[in-house]
Write a structure and sequence with these properties.
- Two copies of one chain form a homodimer.
- Chain A is of the alpha+beta class.
- Chain A has two domains: 271 residues, L-amino peptidase D-ALA esterase/amidase; 123 residues, Ubiquitin-like (UB roll) (Roll), CATH 3.10.20.
- Chain A is built from eleven helices and 15 strands.
- In chain A, strands 1, 2, 3, 4, 5, 6, 7, 8 and 9 form a nine-stranded mixed β-sheet that branches. Chain A has a six-stranded mixed β-sheet with strand order 13-12-11-14-10-15.
- The longest helix of chain A is centred in the middle third of the chain and has 22 residues.
- At the A-B interface, helix 8, helix 9, strand 13 and helix 11 of A face helix 8, helix 9, strand 13 and helix 11 of B.
């Protein structure tokens, strides 16, 4: 497996385009289109929020009921959430327009929106965008990167990642793009993620694999604990790599699994590390928990603790807040067994042993905590299960951005 | 029932004192003592964090195993949490010293600490404080107010409340003081609350009543979602009002219940409204939920949403974030039935009807949201259960305080 330059257009037969439809009335692009020249088997994960947006409703139907999908159209600026029947009708019209211009059926078109909750989509602008997008579709890295930039909201930079691997002598490529920033939390909060691959794989196996991988990647990141109405992750596989079909959990499956896991994890980390206003990616690794579930619960509790996140922003090795967050997580562990280390490129420092502070150097701790990314390693010494969660620090800018978001 | 000036010393026979023991090396007092001239039946609620401090361990034993308590000594600056056996031994010594000087037994003395997690108590300073405190005990309002100030950490002002009521021709008084600020969350996060009453009441009934009231008051407030190691609420009743003993759930019980509920709720609101860095008290009232549990879950989910809290700070009627927080709470409701109002002394404004935004005036909404306190009323129109939660906005100062807390 090799990490390569690229993103959503890296795998064979995938094209992308983007444009400024004027939805945000700003100087940057706000719509994107992904298209595969061949129909794709697909799998997807959606927000678990009871309040979910019209495009989520649309995509669930498409992914669950259609055998294939072939295009995804995305807009930022307006989320098309809490928009009732009119919102759903707008989805239908959008999919219809995209399908018509690409000679597809509308049930093969997914739609994603992100932005402000409440207003209806500005359909005049959306229609104008959809007229432009198909003609601009390209297979180039540049087209992929521009699409990755067009789907951003408060993200500070586009997020792409791609790998290739050899499966039985054939080169298989997996690439993806995503956007995140605010409202990122376990269970798929306002993030959109699109992964494309030319692998030939059976739909059922892709679904199973993607569900498992989502649990250890996108569902283990958090920016602020809020989960959103629009979160969607979609993977499309068009088979153009012409590898032997992955139709059972054999060695081919394992190889592809590892590669897809890397792509998903790296994209998820890019989202966590670009949380609204944050200055660093904060990784929490819990080791030796009684169950996998306990390990996850402990890691997530630390990554979502406002007090711990503010301490990370202040480069303060406040292990009390870490232990405290473990304590209220509800997971099984013995506080008097916990070891805690902080780690970054500046080194590793032991902060707590068996639930008590060790005599560490505050200067060294501050040095370790001043680098990006910062990692906390928590050994609960109870069992054999580990889990990693990713988040970011809580900063002044987070509050500034979210107090002024609509103005 | 009448609200009166006063606090922990308002009820007959209760005295308080405070001093600067130098624990914080600052210019303000950091220790306090509460004493009743007669032994008290008592009830208490403690943090549910798995990591709890030595004084919590001590107090649980005292309240559960002793028939009476008669004194509580409190220090700020150091939490005596994660301090192992030495921490517990320090509690024992402290209780012993207080007991000796007041001619009590140490199992009638409660101990509360709040502050930084990790370091051992500076016992030299604590001993000096305990030598001073008993001699300064007074029944005056002033002594109570000074004690309320001495227990503060990042609180911006002391918190006291008191009422008196008539039970069968006798005047019964209930007063209390508390401290809060950071790490306040449902399930009793770093807050200390002390309530004293001269009512004559059976211990079992006091326990039952206090547990119920805690659930609707202190367990319904949140500042930042973190729960702490030291949270404690203690009520002491010394019987000096000489009312007929409250020994069954009759009219006397109801009268006393309502009064204690008011004292607890007002103290809890004072904590929420003085959350670290906050500019306003934010009240969330959920109406007509299917069950009481659903109503509580919905109200708490909104009150703990960072995005909603940041919007309140920005005076932004961002109903999308409110609906979103309801959606991921896990409680039962239909998003398409929800009505939302914001309310303050500037008026009341309907923002959402049946899950959709109404055509409200943004200017009016900003005006309503610019006052303190601010209230959100959420009608889910499903059943008959209501619940109220209290919190505060998420501000730039919250982050500043918590990024710099130990420096």
């Amino acid at each position: 497996m090799k990490i390569i330059q690229g993103g959503i257009t890296s795998a064979k037969g995938f094209m992308a385009s983007s444009c400024n439809a004027g939805i945000k009335n700003k100087d940057h692009e706000d719509m994107a289109l992904i298209y595969s020249e061949k129909p794709c088997v697909a799998a997807a994960a959606f927000t678990q929020n009871k309040v979910f947006a019209a495009p989520v409703k649309w995509d669930k139907k498409v992914v669950n009921e259609s055998s294939f999908i072939q295009a995804v159209v995305i807009n930022t600026g307006i989320a098309n959430a809490c928009t009732g029947n009119e919102g759903l009708e707008n989805c239908e019209e959008e999919a219809g327009m995209v399908a018509e211009s690409l000679e597809l059926s509308s049930e093969n078109v997914c739609i994603c929106s992100t932005g402000v909750i409440g207003p209806q989509l500005p359909m005049e602008k959306i229609r104008d965008g959809i007229k432009i997008l198909p003609g601009k579709l390209r297979e180039t890295d540049e087209a992929g990167s521009k699409a990755a930039a067009a789907i951003m909201t408060t993200d500070t930079h586009p997020k792409e990642f791609a790998v290739c691997l050899d499966i039985g002598g054939k080169t298989v490529t997996i690439g993806g793009m995503c956007k995140g920033a605010g409202m990122i939390h376990p269970n798929m909060a306002t993030m959109l993620c699109f992964i494309s691959t030319d692998a030939m794989i059976k739909k059922e196996l892709l679904k199973k694999m993607f569900r498992e991988i989502i649990d250890d990647s996108f569902n283990m990141i958090s920016v602020d604990g809020d989960t959103s109405t629009n979160d969607t992750a979609i993977i499309m596989a068009n088979g153009l790599a012409e590898n032997d079909l992955i139709d059972t959990e054999d060695e081919k499956y394992e190889l592809f699994y590892e590669a897809l896991k890397l792509v998903s994890t790296e994209l998820a980390k890019k989202i966590a590390g670009d949380g609204e206003g944050c200055t660093c990616l904060f990784e929490v690794n819990v080791k030796n928990a009684v169950t996998k579930e306990d390990a996850k619960t402990l890691a997530k509790s630390v990554i979502t603790s406002n007090l711990t996140k503010a301490a990370i922003f202040g480069h303060d090795a406040n292990w009390g807040r870490v232990l405290c967050a473990l304590g209220y997580s509800g997971a099984e562990f013995d506080p008097e067994k916990v070891d805690l280390f902080f780690e970054s490129e500046a080194g590793i420092i032991e902060i707590m042993k068996n639930g008590n502070a060790v005599d560490y150097s505050e200067d060294k701790a501050t040095e370790v905590l001043s680098k990006n990314p910062v990692k906390a390693v928590i050994d609960v010494k109870e069992g054999k299960y580990s889990s990693t969660a990713w988040g970011c620090d809580l900063t002044l800018d987070y509050v500034k951005i979210n107090a002024d978001y609509r103005s």
